Amino acid sequence: MQTTKKAVTVIPGDGIGPECINAAIQIIEAAGVNIEWEERHAGARVFKQGIASGVPVDTIESIKRTRVLLKGPLETPVGFGQKSANVTLRKLFETYANIRPVREFPGVTTPYSGRGIDLVVVRENVEDLYAGIEHMQTPGVAQCLKLISRKGCEKIVRTAFEFARAEGRKSVACATKANIMKLTEGFLKKTFEEIAPEYPDIESWHVIIDNCAHQLVKKPEQYDVIVTTNMNGDIISDLTSGLVGGLGFAPTANLGNDVAIFEAVHGSAPKYAGKDVINPTAVILSAVMMLRHIGEFEAAARIENAVMVTIEEGEAQTGDIVGYDKGVSTSAYTKKIIENLGRKPAKYQVRDYAPIKLPNVSKSPVFVTPKTRRVIGADIFVEWGNDAEALGKSIEKIAEATPFRLKMISNRGTKVYPVGDTLPDCADHWRCRFVLRDTGADASQEQLIGLLGAVSAGHRWMHVEKLSEIDGELGYTMAQGED
Ligand code: NAP
């Protein structure tokens, strides 16, 4: 039995969070693991204290000290108000890899029972649209930046392969929307294809994310590890949890090189809060992942076995499986798991785990150094309440006095000037694409500022993007319909 006390920060969370966390702590203690819990808070109650980030300083300090957090779900206002304290915690501590395993549970009947689902979604956890950089472009058009870095891609791809090795898994599929978002989603695909040959023992392939969702419903057993970008991973991991019995069963680990955060995939399910009816398995299995992370492999296996015996024997099943009129309480289910510590299920074998070797990727912000780069133009986004033809004529005239020519104007990504055969329904947000007349030149800052000044004289602009050429390749994509 362990003797040194390991400190772990614990956040009970909102809604059903405290019930789930309480169950996990009781079981860990009953298994004899010696943990010093540092209880801290984040989320709804912290917002109410007027702390806009939802994460107070003493919570941050505790996590910096313990480097391990077990947390309940935190409520986030939907469509307004403060940012998600969950996402803030993941990002503050650079927990870049979100590991979301699902495996068929013995005794939980689903349409997929008997097919041996046993897969893991490895989701990039800090970038993508979840960087949360949003701006109103005009009073009627909102924008969210999708930021994907080569560094972020490299970290998540290497983690996926290392994770596959640590768990003795056979394949890693990379799921992206690179057919549409060639530079951002394409960055993950490109990085994956470059790194995969370093892991010749693991089969690898790329799949378009929408087909991946389709395949997951049709033939989920074909997947072992799926690595994907943040938002794709968020959505398909809820889907995968549905394949094995629902959100009540889906644990997750947020791994970074310094800090790891363990929590359920599910949220605070407010309608069940305080009723002692919910399924705490997701948080209990997240705690099992945490125990492995801190080296408590034996206790982790004992608890995992006890959970599986309890589910398999079906004497204590929660309402999400058998209906809330028939299900046992959260506390009775927890008690049963504790009684089953030391027993092994008949139809489920805990796999052999080895510690995951997280990638040690350079911390330098400069991760890619091209041999050549130049600026060949600019996209200037302007607000305009009239038609494309009138805007085009006006902007062309403005460009005459600059080293640039207007190449085209697009509206929500589709070329509308020079006018084509189709007529999209336009919003008041127009991208004016300027390119240098001298096609071999490199636009200077002064030339770009001059262009912006000229446009400002006649139009309200909201942002500017440089058009770059990096190592001879275009650093931007064409508009729909642009030649
Ligand atoms: P949710 O809290 O995950 O609940 C959705 C549904 O999933 C519930 O109504 C329930 O389904 C089922 N469910 C979830 N956990 C369960 C459990 N332990 N046992 C049994 N059933 C469970 O999702 P939401 O309603 O979309 O979000 C509520 C709040 O949680 C929001 O503020 C959201 O931002 C937040 N959230 C937090 C996290 C996090 O902390 N990491 C993650 C997701 C969402 P039935 O209705 O079918 O019974």
Strand order of the largest sheet: 2-1-3-12-11-4-5-10-8-9
Q: Total strand count, please?
A: 18
Poorly predicted residue ranges: none
Structural class: alpha/beta
The proportion of strand residues reads 15-25%
Helix content: 25-40%
Distance between the termini: 69 Å
Main beta-sheet strand count, sense and barrel state: 10 strands, mixed
Number of helices: 14
Mean pLDDT: 95
Enumerate the distinct ligands.
Answer: NADP nicotinamide-adenine-dinucleotide phosphate
Which overall shape is indicated by the principal axes computed on the Cα atoms? Answer: elongated
Radius of gyration: 26 Å
Key phrases:
alpha/beta, 483 residues, single chain, 6-stranded antiparallel beta sheet, elongated, 10-stranded mixed beta sheet
Structural commentary:
- The chain has 483 residues and is an alpha/beta fold.
- It is 33% helix and 22% strand.
- It has 14 helices and 18 strands.
- The strands form three sheets. It has a ten-stranded mixed β-sheet with strand order 2-1-3-12-11-4-5-10-8-9, sandwiched between helices. A six-stranded antiparallel β-sheet has the order 15-14-16-13-17-18, with helices on both faces. A two-stranded antiparallel ribbon has the order 6-7.
- A hairpin with a 2-residue loop joins β6 and β7 (141-144).
- α1 packs across α9, α9 (281-293) packs antiparallel against α10 and α10 (297-313) crosses α12.
- The mean pLDDT is 95.
- The site of NADP nicotinamide-adenine-dinucleotide phosphate has 17 residues, from loops.
